[in-house]
Design goal:
The chain has a single domain (about 1-340), classed as Deoxyribonuclease I, Chain A (4-Layer Sandwich), CATH 3.60.10. Helix content is about 25%, strand content about 30%. It is built from six helices and 16 strands. The strands form four sheets. It has a six-stranded mixed β-sheet with strand order 3-4-2-1-16-13. A six-stranded mixed β-sheet has the order 5-6-7-8-12-9, with helices on one face. A two-stranded antiparallel sheet has the order 10-11. β14 (about 320) and β15 form a beta hairpin. α4 (about 190-210) runs parallel beside α5. The protein is globular and about 60 Å long. The two termini are about 35 Å apart.
């Protein structure tokens, strides 16, 4: 009889403990995905979208567009699925707000009830950077674009950097900056100063945030067209690659060690590059209890996203290659970070 009472008490205690433990931690996933030329099939005279028209060089039509949307939805629906999906997802290479609305209305994404935070950029190709966010988890407060100006290149135009401010799970105000820095067209030597200038603009945005919010939690994400060890990160942005070296209001780049370990998000000439990155401010490393804290960073990769055969075997399975329609996903792999909130009662 005593043993039975003991067993009963043990089971009750265990059930209570498990319940408390389950409520102790809450996680949130913040991601980024370069979706590779998400264009609709409608001609926009203000954008360079001629390739992506039914009579264009890619013979882009409704069937290809719908397949592209479905493929992207398949990927996005799986990012951080064990944590409830992406609370916020930055995206790049989208033509307009309409394609984002088509994307979030795909069957596999409906359960997330994603809302769109779009900003028009002056990019020559007509592509933008913007955000998707789960309305039930993230309350958007504001969105603002910042244009990169190169004084000695008055005709230079690229994507704006977009700052979105909002509240995550009614707990933390986050400042998220999504980027798509200038490409390497023209070669490394010629294009590198443009990305350094882009990095300096990002740092300026961060410094401006800190002036009004000294303890701001900032997340910087994007396709930077540079690896974590590039001058744009180490000098222009002043990013720190080792957590032990962080000082107040430094920017930590968790992708630095990942790149040294050979992890990449895009393949070029049989090498993996880590152009897609997410960085965090030191305030997300030293976060107080009952608020969100940075835990880990990842490149999202599944077998179906990788080519199995042909000259691009082992590369991300993309939409087009060499002008041929491959029916894939993107030439980039998504990246994401995990935040965790530990409640102390």
């Amino acid at each position: 009889m005593k043993n039975l009472k003991f067993l009963t008490l043990f089971l009750i205690f265990g059930a209570c403990y498990s319940t408390i433990w389950a409520q102790t931690y809450q996680t949130a996933v913040i991601g980024f995905y370069n979706v590779e030329n998400l264009f609709d099939t409608i001609n926009d005279p203000l954008k360079n979208d001629e390739q992506f028209l039914p009579d264009g060089s890619y013979q882009w039509n409704s069937d290809k567009y719908q397949l592209k949307l479905k493929n992207l939805a398949d990927v996005i629906s799986l990012i951080g699925e064990e944590h409830g999906g992406c609370a916020v997802l930055g995206v790049s290479e989208v033509e307009n707000e309409a394609v984002l609305l088509d994307l979030v209305n795909q069957e596999k994404l409906k359960k997330f009830n994603f809302k769109v935070a779009h900003h028009d950029s002056p990019d020559r190709r007509g592509v933008d950077v913007c955000f998707l966010y789960q309305e039930k988890r993230f309350e958007m407060l504001s969105i603002k674009g910042f244009t990169l100006v190169i004084p000695d290149k008055p005709d230079f135009i690229t994507r704006d950097q977009v700052l979105m401010t909002g509240v995550l799970d009614q707990v933390d105000t986050l400042f998220l900056i999504v980027n798509h820095w200038p490409s390497k067209i023209g070669g490394e030597r010629r294009s590198s100063p443009l990305r350094v200038a882009a990095a300096e603009l990002t740092k300026h945005i961060c410094d401006s945030i800190y002036q009004h919010h000294p303890d701001a939690k900032i997340i910087i994400m994007g396709d930077f067209n540079d690896n974590p060890n590039a001058k744009s990160f180490t000098k222009g942005l002043g990013a720190v690659g080792k957590m032990k070296d962080l000082k107040k209001n430094d920017i930590f780049n968790p992708m630095y060690q990942m790149f040294r370990d050979g992890i990449g998000s895009i393949a070029y000439q049989d090498n993996w590059e880590l152009f897609d990155q997410i960085l965090v401010s030191s305030n997300l490393i030293t976060a107080a209890p009952n608020t969100y804290k940075y835990i880990s960073a990842h490149v999202f990769r599944r077998n179906f996203m990788i080519n199995k055969t042909g000259s691009f075997a082992g590369y991300p399975h993309r939409t087009f290659a060499g002008g041929a329609f491959l029916g894939g996903y993107s030439d980039h792999l998504p990246v994401y970070i995990i935040l965790e909130k530990k409640d102390i009662k």
